[in-house]
Amino acid sequence: MTLRIQSTDLQTAYGCIYIKSWVQLHAELAPIILLHDSLGSVDLWRDFPLLLSEKTGRTVHAYDRSGFGRSSAASQRPNLDFIAAESQTVFAAVAASLALGHFIVMGHSVGGGMSACIAADYADQCRGLITISAQSMLEDLTVRGIQEAKQGFAQPGQLDRLAKYHGDKAQWVLDAWTETWCDPMFADWDLAEYLERVYCPNLVLHGELDEYGSSIQAERFAELTQGPSALYILSGLHHMPHKENPELAVNLIAEFLEPLE
Fold it and tell me: What are the angstrom distances between the C-alpha of 34 and each of 19, 22, 159?
């Protein structure tokens, strides 16, 4: 197959949304849609989408959520329902632009939670759900990890790490993560009702040493969803297993997707 890499700036009601695609020409398999983490962006996936497309033979689409990366700046902090809301807002606009039929949805960290909501809301179209280091409820471990990260970013020069990918939106990106997840009103957040509406096959990857969520998070994705699930607690890996050991992650994903359309 021939692979073509392309990008587009999609004008939506939520601002300009940047989409990058690794297109497998003539491929008939359902494409993979990637949703990034709380500090992430298309560029921060680095070469993972390319590896994924080459290994699976599927087209891969990734987009910067509103306020992140190359997409337009957001005007205010995310609402507390922003994880579930992504499915019916920016993702819906992206799906319409790409003329998606059947698809595989995959997300890292908060993107995994969003992916589960998408799998629930688009049950007729979603052929598979893949989550990496995802959360579906708030743990003390999650809050502690975010508070420690916030202290780290307060050190001189640390915000520049985000500015490299988010430009002058870097402070907003950091606050959207730390201030939302640590808001007392967010303490009861739980995606159980969405997980229970996921009927497609489900692959759950979780680092054994994840600093933002225990294995309980992964177990909930496997146990509460209704379709067949495959759960891997990855020994020695942390919150970024797809970057820490991309070959392992890609191989597990390819094996999971092999029998799917």
Answer: 10, 11, 25
Nearest C-alpha neighbor of 204 from the set 148, 136, 103, 149: 136
CA distance 179 to 18: 25
Place of tokens 């969003």: 114
Which tokens belong to 218?
């992964």
Instruction: Tell which residue, 96, 148, 87, has the closest CA to residue 114.
Output: 87
Give the tokens for residue 58. Answer: 């599927």
Local structure of 52: helix, strand or coil: helix
Q: How many other C-beta atoms lie within 10 A of the C-beta of residue 8?
A: 15
Specify the 3-state DSSP secondary structure of 127: strand
pLDDT band per the 50, 70, 90 thresholds, residue 261: confident
Predicted local distance difference test score (pLDDT) of residue 32: 98
Q: Please list, residue by residue across 70-90, b when 16 or more beta carbons sit within 10 angstroms of its beta carbon and e when fewer do.
A: bbbebeeebeeebbbebbebb
DSSP symbol at 87: G
Q: Check whether 1 has a pLDDT greater than 80.
A: no
Closest CA to 39 of 155, 153, 140, 130: 153
Tokens 């970013």, located at residue: 153
Could you tell me the CA-to-CA distances from 152 to 6, 25, 70, 175, 178 in Å, in that order?
A: 35, 44, 24, 13, 12
C-beta of residue 50 within 8 angstroms of C-beta of residue 42: no
DSSP E strand boundaries for the chain: 3-12, 15-24, 32-35, 60-63, 103-108, 126-132, 202-207, 229-234
